[in-house]
Design goal:
Number of helices: 7
Protein name: TGS domain protein
Domain TGS: 144-220
CATH topology of the largest domain: Ubiquitin-like (UB roll)
GO molecular function: GTP binding; GTPase activity
Largest sheet: 5 strands, mixed
Strand content: 25-35%
Strand order of the largest sheet: 10-9-13-11-12
Order of helices and strands: EHEEEHEHEEHEHEEHHEEE
Radius of gyration: 24 Å
Number of strands: 13
Domain OBG-type G: 1-144
Helix content: 25-40%
InterPro entries: Beta-grasp_dom_sf (IPR012675), DRG (IPR045001), G_OBG (IPR031167), GTP-binding_2 (IPR031662), P-loop_NTPase (IPR027417), TGS (IPR004095), TGS-like (IPR012676)
CATH class of the largest domain: Alpha Beta
CATH superfamily of the largest domain: Beta-grasp domain
Length: 221
């Protein structure tokens, strides 16, 4: 989200308000609330921690708006009414967001120092191309991706074209599938250099978890 650094909070609040209306939640995790409808038995509320807003009557009132009279609700943290409504609706989208504050060439160093402390923000100057490296690094982090470099036998690693993996699907097997399905069948072992290796190189199997910027050589049968 690109904002004018001269009016960042005003524009941020307006845009977030509009997105909230469409069920889009920025930089938030889905509420850790258990919700299960049932045929009978009424409303059963279990609060695992003390609640400052929701009690049984409040929960019943919210559920009645959706014509739900039989359900099990588990509150695993101090939840709000909005959190419970989001869970009941079940159609909310939770996505990461970077607030790009443009035109930092028009503010002082002291103001820039304050802006750097704002969560999820990256100050830049599009005109002067200032701080683009920080923005790219932050984008990579928020996309939750890792870069894996391949190394053909007897050659140097290819650093020009990394294979990009989701950070949650980052095993050697995932890498093989990304390169070509046939590698999964022909796979014998892999040699890994980098942060995930106990020593360089380390001979590993398919289940080995890779880290960002590891170098991998696939050994075929």
């Amino acid at each position: 989200m690109v904002l004018d650094v001269m009016k960042p909070l005003k524009h941020k609040q307006l845009l977030e308000y509009e997105l909230e209306g469409f069920g889009i939640r920025l930089n938030k995790q889905p509420p850790n609330i258990g919700f299960k409808k049932k045929e009978k038995g009424g409303i059963n509320l279990t609060a695992l921690v003390p609640q400052s807003e929701l009690d049984l009557e409040a929960v019943k009132s919210i559920l009645s708006e959706y014509k739900i009279h039989n359900a099990d609700i588990t509150l695993r943290y101090d939840a709000t009414s909005e959190d419970l409504i989001d869970v009941i609706e079940g159609n909310r989208v939770y996505i990461p967001c970077i607030y790009v504050l443009n035109k930092i060439d028009q503010i002082s160093i002291e103001e820039l120092d304050i802006i750097y402390r704002i969560p999820h923000c990256v100050p830049i100057s599009a005109h002067h191309k200032w701080n683009f490296d920080d923005l790219l690094e932050k984008m990579w982090q928020y996309l939750n991706l890792i870069r894996i470099y391949t190394k053909p036998r007897g050659q140097l690693p290819d650093y020009s074209a990394p294979i990009v993996l989701n950070a949650e699907k980052n095993t050697v097997d995932d890498l093989c599938l990304k390169i070509h399905k046939s590698l999964q069948k022909d796979f014998k072992a892999a040699l890994v250099w980098g942060a995930s290796a106990k020593h360089n190189p380390q001979r590993v199997g398919k289940e080995h978890v890779l880290f960002d910027e590891d170098v991998v050589q696939i050994l075929k049968r």
